Amino acid sequence: MRAAFFLVMIELLWIRNRDPMKVGRILAGVFVVVVLNSCESWFQDIGLKDIKRVDGPCTITLKDGTVIETPYSLEISIRTEAITYRDEDRKLWTVFREEYESYACQE
């Protein structure tokens, strides 16, 4: 899939610009973005990326039995395990690890 994307990009850029140096610079930039994107787990391993995003809708079960439902994604700190979410009014909230039992999201 990525190879086909790159071939299409090369052809479109070549036809549009007809400048091999400009096409080369653009492709080098695209390559760097793809390489950095594929290193996401490595960034997490060395501590450069601390947030894990989980697509919603999601439910968070608090220790007191309360269930929080959100139609949006969750962002979870890998280091502290704090969950940040948005409510139905799109207000931003954070629940710390000591306050919740579990969370679940539909993908």
Give a structural overview:
- The strands form two sheets. A four-stranded antiparallel beta sheet has the order 1-4-5-6, with no helix packed on it.
- The protein is α+β, with helices and mostly antiparallel strands and 107 residues long.
- A hairpin with a 5-residue loop joins strand 4 and strand 5 (83-86).
- The protein is elongated and about 65 Å long.
- Helix 1 runs antiparallel to helix 2 (20-38).
- The protein has helices spanning 2-17, 20-38, 40-45; strands at residues 51-54, 58-62, 67-70, 74-77, 83-86, 92-95, 100-105.
- It is built from three helices and seven strands; from the N terminus they run H-H-H-E-E-E-E-E-E-E.
- The mean pLDDT is 81.
- The protein has two domains: 2-38, no CATH class; 51-105, SH3 type barrels.
Determine the CATH topology of the largest domain.
SH3 type barrels
Largest sheet: 4 strands, antiparallel
Ranges where pLDDT stays below 50 over 5 or more residues in a row are none
What gap, in angstroms, lies between the N and C termini? 22 Å
Give the SSE string.
Answer: HHHEEEEEEE
Approximately how much helix is present in the residues? 25-40%
Number of helices: 3
Percent strand equals 25-35%
Shape: elongated
CA-based gyration radius = 20 Å
Give the helix/strand layout:
Blueprint: H1 2-17, H2 20-38, H3 40-45, E1 51-54, E2 58-62, E3 67-70, E4 74-77, E5 83-86, E6 92-95, E7 100-105
Antiparallel strand pairs: 1-4, 2-3, 2-7, 4-5, 5-6
Describe this protein with a few key phrases.
single chain, alpha+beta, three-stranded antiparallel β-sheet, elongated, 107 residues, SH3 type barrels, four-stranded antiparallel β-sheet, 3 helices
